[in-house]
Structures are given as structure tokens and as C-alpha cells.
């Protein structure tokens, strides 16, 4: 129930009762403003989008704890969320109430982050805050998110430059015999390093020349975790060079007790922490992930389709593959020239004759 009544002082008093029967009132100088407010509230109540003015008084930190406990995400992304909340969002907004946050506050927060954080890091932190406030909107604690229309820094768009075959061969030679097979595997399949370290003997079909990605090694703790995405669970074809390298590696060093293919010099499963100094010992300027780019570039140069490359790399969709590797597909410039020539030829010749 809502009503508007003029007071003795000339102000217009608009009031309504919410679903719990609690009365809310505001005063306006003009009747038209009072009527607009009542109409907006009534519409919100009828549509189920009504937000109690007092609902947003919970602090960001208290609500974030409730929101965080309800999330269903991979452990890796949960760590990203925890890092953003603990180190950036809570120190700035933790004691503030949800309803007190304004777009200008969030924009200032982003601007401060940009001064000493990379663009990708700022995007990741902002995404957590945006998801948090979006959940508050869905829970009818605030009417709108203060993260809407916030301007973010541009992300770098440097093209991927894979190592050459000679450079890959040099890395494999310098890394030593125990880890040569791992370099060949990464360059010959496009596996992520965490996926390669998670491989067990049962995952490789030496006769059919395939391997199955079912798990990855946790980069921050012992043991395994699920692959990055559902698309990361896949069967990858193995060339003869990779098959022979893996067979020779297992014959020389054997698997770990848990079946892991790659081990350290004590025969224990090789972890990412253990892998980093081994990679650094090659003194290459490339990162391990660049071997994945090498595999993608080799597939593209050999005529593989976008779909094939996407499936082998375990991308969530082909758009990701194109976004990273579109510049490596050969013949695009020449094809564009031919199409434009054919489209312009007749009209240009006609114009010449008419002239």
C-alpha cells in the first residue's frame, strides 16, 4: 500500500509498506517527484525486484565471506578470488557497507591499481569485485552494481612468437637427458606444463599413438587437480618422435611410484616447483608455455584447421584459438588480395572505359 499526503510545511510525504509490513517514507518538495518515487517502488515490488533500503547495510567483508563460501569453482580460480579479496578489495572496501559503494569509488580503486599492477592483474581483481557486487544485486541487497561502466586499462595485444625448430632442439639438448623427453612432449603435443607433469603411464597408448589428459599437477601443492576446463579433458595424437622419446625415457628412468611419467633425480614425481630451476638451467629467453605455442604454430603451418588446433590444445572454444594464433595462419593476405582484386576488377575497368 502506498500513499502521498501534503504536510503542513508544504512538503509532500510519500510512504509505502514493504512485504514485511514495515513502513518507509520520504519527503519531497514537488508532488510529481513523490509520485514518481512511489510508482518506482510499487513497480519494483510487483516485479520482484524490490530492494529494502536497509538491506545493503551489511559490510563488503561480511557479505564476501558468505558469497565466497557458496562458490563452486576450480581450486586455481578460488585462489585468485581469495588473493583479490584479501590483498586488494578488503583493504579498500572491506569495512564499507554494500549500499555505500559508488561507481566513482570503484573507478578510483581501478585507477590506483593501475599505477602498480599490470593490466591483466587489474582486470582479474576487478572481475572478482564485479562478481561480488553482481551477486549482491541478485540477492536484492543493492539495486544496481557500482561496477557498471567502470573503465579498465587496455590489455597488451602482443603477437605470440613461438620458438623456431632449431631453438626447440637447442633447449632439448641443453636441458639434459633426464628431461629431454618432457621438452619433446611439450613441443610435440601443445600440453600445458601442469598437464604434462600430471601424466601417468596409463594415460599413454603407445600402440595407437595417443595420450589422454585426465588431470594436471597442482602447481601450489602436492598431488593432482582436475584439468583447467572441461575442454582440457581430451585425447591428443602423438607423433612417432614423441612416442619414441617417451618409451626411451621410461626405459631409462622408469615411472614414479604413483605412475607419474616424469620424475626428479630422486625418482619422485616431478613438481612444477622442481621443474622451474631445471627450465632456467637452459638459459633460454623463452618460457615453458612457449613450447605450447610452438606446437600450435607447427599444426597451423602444416594445414590444421582452427577446430583441430583448438581441440588438441584443449581450448574452451575455437574463438580462443583464433584470438591467440590468427596471425600464424598462412595465406590470409594473399587470399584477401585476390578477393579484393576480383571485386574491384569489373567496376574499375568499366570506369576506365566510360572515362
Reconstruct the topology from this structure.
Elements: E1 2-6, E2 12-17, E3 23-28, H1 31-47, H2 60-69, H3 75-93, H4 103-116, H5 119-138, H6 165-174, H7 177-189, H8 193-197, E4 204-205, E5 210-213, E6 216-217, E7 224-225, E8 234-237, H9 240-253, H10 272-280, H11 290-301, H12 306-313, H13 318-325, H14 332-354
Give the count of helical stretches: 14
Kindly provide the name of the CATH class of the largest domain: Mainly Alpha
Report the CATH architecture of the largest domain. Orthogonal Bundle
SSE series: EEEHHHHHHHHEEEEEHHHHHH
The main sheet orders its strands as: 1-2-3
Mean pLDDT: 88
Query: How many distinct beta strands?
Result: 8
Q: Could you tell me the radius of gyration in angstroms?
A: 30 Å
Structural class: mainly alpha
Give the CATH H-level superfamily of the largest domain: Intergrase catalytic core
Output the CATH topology of the largest domain.
Answer: hpI Integrase, Chain A
Largest sheet: 3 strands, antiparallel
Estimate nothing, just give the exact number of structural domains. Answer: 3
- Percent range for β-strand residues: 5-15%
Structural features, described:
The chain has 355 residues and is mainly alpha-helical. It folds into three domains: 2-50; 57-138, Tyrosine recombinase, N-terminal domain (DNA polymerase, domain 1, Orthogonal Bundle); 165-328, Orthogonal Bundle (hpI Integrase, Chain A), CATH 1.10.443. 51% of the residues lie in helices and 9% in strands. The chain contains 14 helices and eight strands. It has helices at 31-47, 60-69, 75-93, 103-116, 119-138, 165-174, 177-189, 193-197, 240-253, 272-280, 290-301, 306-313, 318-325, 332-354, and strands at 2-6, 12-17, 23-28, 204-205, 210-213, 216-217, 224-225, 234-237. The chain has a three-stranded antiparallel sheet with strand order 1-2-3, with helices on one face. A three-stranded antiparallel sheet has the order 4-5-8. A two-stranded antiparallel ribbon has the order 6-7. A hairpin with a 6-residue loop joins β6 (216-217) and β7 (224-225). α2 (60-69) packs antiparallel against α3 and α3 packs across α5 (119-138). The termini are far apart.
Amino acid at each position: 500500500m502506498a500513499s502521498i499526503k501534503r504536510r503542513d510545511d508544504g512538503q509532500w510525504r510519500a510512504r509505502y509498506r514493504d512485504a514485511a509490513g514495515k513502513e518507509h517514507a520520504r519527503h519531497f518538495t514537488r508532488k510529481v517527484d513523490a509520485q514518481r518515487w512511489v510508482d518506482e517502488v510499487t513497480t519494483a515490488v510487483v516485479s520482484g525486484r524490490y530492494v529494502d533500503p536497509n538491506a545493503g547495510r551489511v559490510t563488503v567483508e561480511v557479505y564476501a565471506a558468505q558469497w565466497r563460501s557458496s562458490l563452486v569453482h576450480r581450486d586455481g580460480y578460488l585462489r585468485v578470488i581469495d588473493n583479490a579479496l584479501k590483498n586488494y578489495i578488503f583493504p579498500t572496501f572491506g569495512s564499507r557497507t554494500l549500499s555505500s559503494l559508488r561507481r566513482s569509488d570503484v573507478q578510483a580503486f581501478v585507477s590506483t591499481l593501475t599505477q602498480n599492477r599490470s593490466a591483466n592483474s587489474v582486470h582479474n581483481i576487478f572481475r572478482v569485485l564485479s562478481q561480488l557486487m553482481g551477486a549482491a544485486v541478485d540477492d536484492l541487497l543493492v539495486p544496481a552494481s557500482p561496477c557498471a561502466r567502470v573503465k579498465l586499462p587496455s590489455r597488451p595485444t602482443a603477437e605470440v612468437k613461438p620458438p623456431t625448430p632449431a631453438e626447440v632442439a637447442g633447449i632439448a639438448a641443453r636441458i639434459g637427458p633426464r628431461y629431454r623427453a618432457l621438452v619433446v612432449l611439450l613441443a610435440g603435443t601443445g600440453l600445458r606444463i601442469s598437464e604434462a607433469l600430471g601424466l601417468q603411464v596409463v594415460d599413454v597408448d603407445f600402440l595407437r599413438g595417443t595420450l589422454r589428459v585426465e588431470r594436471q599437477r597442482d602447481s601450489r601443492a602436492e598431488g593432482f587437480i582436475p584439468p583447467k576446463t572441461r575442454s582440457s579433458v581430451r585425447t591428443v595424437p602423438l607423433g612417432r618422435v614423441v612416442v619414441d622419446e617417451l618409451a626411451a625415457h621410461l626405459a631409462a628412468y622408469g615411472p614414479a611410484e604413483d605412475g607419474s611419467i616424469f620424475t626428479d633425480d630422486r625418482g619422485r614425481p616431478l613438481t612444477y616447483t622442481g621443474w622451474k630451476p631445471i627450465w632456467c638451467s637452459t638459459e633460454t629467453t623463452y618460457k615453458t608455455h612457449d613450447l605450447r605455442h610452438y606446437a600450435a604454430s607447427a599444426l597451423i603451418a602444416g594445414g590444421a584447421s582452427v577446430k583441430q588446433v583448438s581441440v588438441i590444445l584443449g581450448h574452451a572454444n575455437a574463438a580462443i584459438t583464433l584470438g591467440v594464433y590468427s596471425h600464424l595462419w598462412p595465406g590470409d593476405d594473399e587470399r584477401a588480395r585476390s578477393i579484393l582484386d576480383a571485386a574491384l576488377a569489373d567496376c574499375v575497368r568499366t570506369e576506365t572505359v566510360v572515362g
